[in-house]
Amino acid sequence: MTASAAPMLEVRDLTLRFGSVTAFADLSFDVARGELFAVIGPNGAGKTSLFNVLSRAYVPTAGSVRFDGADLLRLRISALAGAGVARTFQNLGLFGELTALENVLIGRHHLMRSGTLRSGLWLGYARREERRHRAAAMEALEFTGIGHHAHAPTGTLPFGIQKRVEIARALAMEPKLMLLDEPVAGMSVSEREEITALVRRLHRERDLTLLLVEHDMGMVMRIAQRVLVLDFGRVIAIGTPAEVQRDERVIRAYLGEELEGDLAEVRR
Amino acid sequence: MTAFFQLLFQGIALGCIYALVALGFTVVYRASKVINFAQGSLLLVGAYLVSVLATGLNLPFVLAVIAAIALLAAGCAIFQMMVLQRVLGQPVFVLVMITIGLSIVIDAAIPAIFGGNARILGDPWGASAVHVGGVTFNWVRIWTVLCTALILALYFVFDRFSRYGLAMRATAADEEAALAVGVPVRRVYALTWAIAGGVAVVGGLFLAGFPGSVNPSLGNVSLRAFPAIILGGLDSPPGAVVGGITIGIVEVMASGYAPGWLGSDFSAVAPYVVMILVLLCRPYGLFGTRPVERV
Amino acid sequence: MTRLASLRRRLGARIGAKPAAVLAIAILAIVLPFGLDAFWLTTATFVLIAAIGALGLNVLTGYTGQISLGHAFFLAVGAYTAAVLGGTARLTAAIWLPAAGVVAALCGALVGPTALRLRGLYLAIVTIGLVFIGQHIWFNVAAISGGPGGRSFPPVTFGAFDFSPGQQLTLGGLVIDHNGLYYYLALIILAAAMLFIWNLVRGRPGRAMQAVRDREIAAAIMGVNLARTKMSAFVVSSFLAGVSGALYASYLSFATPGQWSLLLSVQYVAAIIVGGIGTVWGALLGSMVIFALPSVLQSLIPQSSSGGLPIDDISSIAYGLLIIVFFVLEPRGVVGLGARVASLWSRVAMRGGKGGGLSEETQPLERREATWAR
């Protein structure tokens, strides 16, 4: 079997427990190559925990994850970037004292080779490598529309810009799979529109598989190709946005009254 | 076997002193995350205060000790309020540096005022002892153990059952939340320093008791109490006690049984060797809580 | 306008400060010995030597966030390497000076792995243990350290160059004595080390270090190898400590095991905090304050009118008090002081103009505090 025939991500019976608390149990799903796949669910449904397992920050209690045909759970956390997985963080994972450009360059750390001696002595190799990757990092910042913030320390940037720096950093990692953790959380309506367009553009213009965790139903229903609905750590539905929206269990168990308004808005 | 029990008793007595020092550290650390590098110097001040009050002013010894505890506790609380509270909200290392500055001042001021020579404590025990089955129990050591037990019991009752104990625990758990529900956090900080000062007097006086004396090098003992607080876990007062006594026993046993090739005075570093070995197995000490990793 | 400003900032960032300022400092440092008497020249030399070690500590603590109180141990390792190779084996300084750094770096590489398991103050206290275990070894292994009485350390000699007391170098009419020779040697090594570290922290390894300091797990997810990053921080830091320790002992020419004490470590930590955590210049600035202050106090306090109190104690008391006062009044250290002076300066200079330029200067410090408060 060739690697390209396999799904990008195969999750089987994945379970994560903290003591007696179950974050999620028996999750199984595939993400196809080039797909824009979304995981939704109310707060505490286990979405971010799932991301933390997929990015090797948490060790699952049981189950398996295959990424691009290989066992993801055998990779060390710092080997993940090299394998082709990038992520953003719900509450920002930026290095506040570094500039936006330097943050994005951290994303290219695994693509660079200069070590302590070569960098410290500022040898030709390190210099050339630095120049090349700075250009690539700038390109990523330009793609997300914030090239003019490149030299500002990220700690001083507004939240919406910081989110874009994170996306630029993930993009600069040149991943096969990008995990986006609530990219529009805490944003204004116009910012949401811009980020939604950016995610779409990412998916369309870059050869990427996107796995999106989101709270914002409107965004997910508009851009996702398939949606997985989590409730209390269990899969209650999986399918296209249209299928999920019609699913009785989803409407009853999770969407509830308050979200029906949102859905109606989306349908319009 | 007699020698073993002799060493064990001495180890427990020394460990009690470490436990008191460690308690002083953890009380302050738990509330404010500040490692008080002046704790050893406070011990030094405590011992000199008792000595001056008992031999200089000729107060009865018990009265001298109580007065010294009150004075040092008040002094520490005042230092906290006058100096440390001005930098509240600054990074922790700023506060740590100030405690280092304080310890430099005290360590230089004591010999400047009292000279480098040893002076007597004025305690009623001297070398008196009871002998049981060949083992010598010096009265000063018996009192060390008893007083330590009493102070620890008082502290835990206070911590568990008093309003301020609750305030201290609340501040330790979450300073901002404590502030939000009306815990007088500033007063809690002052209180933790007062406790640190009070226990320092007791630790200092027993450290200076037989066969020691009141001299400027007493403060060094606090450096040997670091392994105790690490063993117990920085934020755990019961851990401080267990860690302190363990380290005391380790040190005394090493002085009795360490082979010669380990070098002279190996007992002084034995606590650190034990500490490093323990930390390699349990990175947050025997009782410390592992902080939850936030991603 | 903004592009010009950003270009200037980038250029400044490359060199570490405004080029004119660096040039001015360099010229000042070169002519300084001719304006100082022996007492102050000695002090200045000790400050430069200490700054080399402080720079190393700033890589480990300031840039990588690993709090270490074990610097005295690595200084001692460097010093005793120099003593054994230069004194006992009579090798040239061209060998023992780099070797001091290398041996200390090897020790750092052995200690480094503990930092992978321990966080924050736990690591700090384990490194305190390193100082005590080190002192135990120095006191007991007389073959290396001379035992409790101490031993002499070799003067720096490079072939024809001899830096021993009494030696001097005549360069076109200028006479540079023993103190001056050490001063320039320390200055050259410090300048090279600062340049190296400056390149390092701007490049791939330095970015990784700062990422580890700010958010360890996020850094790992970005592909930063935590073990390797912390390890290289330890190695670089202890290398510089070793070189600094060797120079220090050589300049002192005699040292006892008791000198490599926790207080020495604490002084180094104080130096980087005073000078500026995570800055290249901070190591030098802080060393000027922390390691020159005792000399300043000594010269200020009259030798006779001390009312019977020993001079040493008085200057120690003043030293401690100054540390307390300094941190109460200026918790951000000399860099904070500098920012305050700079903002005052620009407020005066820009009176009537728009005052928007200030926030750029002060904001990084606020953020630095925010990072360290965690």
Largest sheet of chain A: 6 strands, mixed
Mean pLDDT of chain A: 87
Q: Count of DSSP helices of chain A?
A: 10
Estimated radius of gyration of chain A: 19 Å
Share of helix of chain A, binned: 40-55%
What structural class is derived from the secondary structure elements of chain B?
mainly alpha
Strand order of the largest sheet of chain B: 1-2
From N to C, what is the helix and strand string of chain B? HHHHEEHHHHHHH
Order of helices and strands of chain A: EEEHEEHEHHHHEHEHEEHH
**So what's the overall shape of chain B?**
globular
How far is it from the N-terminal to the C-terminal residue of chain B, by CA?
54 Å
Structure description:
The complex is a heterotrimer of chains A (268), B (295) and C (374). Chain A is α/β, with parallel strands linked by helices and 268 residues long. Chain A contains ten helices and ten strands. Chain A is globular, with a radius of gyration of 19 Å. By secondary structure, chain B is mainly α. Helix content of chain B is 69%, strand content 3%. Chain B has eleven helices and two strands; from the N terminus they run ααααββααααααα. Chain B has helices at 2-32, 39-56, 61-82, 92-114, 139-161, 163-173, 175-180, 185-208, 221-232, 237-257, 270-281, and strands spanning 129-132, 135-138. In chain B, strand 1 (129-132) and strand 2 form a beta hairpin. In chain B, helix 1 (2-32) packs parallel to helix 5 (139-161), helix 2 (39-56) crosses helix 3 (61-82) and helix 5 packs across helix 6. The longest helix of chain B is centred in the N-terminal third of the chain and has 31 residues, at 2-32. The model of chain B has no long low-confidence stretch (mean pLDDT 83). Chain C is built from 16 helices and six strands. Chain C starts with a helix and ends with a helix. Chain C has a two-stranded antiparallel ribbon. Chain C has a two-stranded antiparallel sheet with strand order 2-3. With 374 residues, chain C is mainly alpha-helical. Chains in contact: A-B, A-C, B-C. At the A-C interface, helix 2, helix 3, helix 4 and helix 5 of A face helix 1, helix 8, helix 9, helix 10 and helix 11 of C.
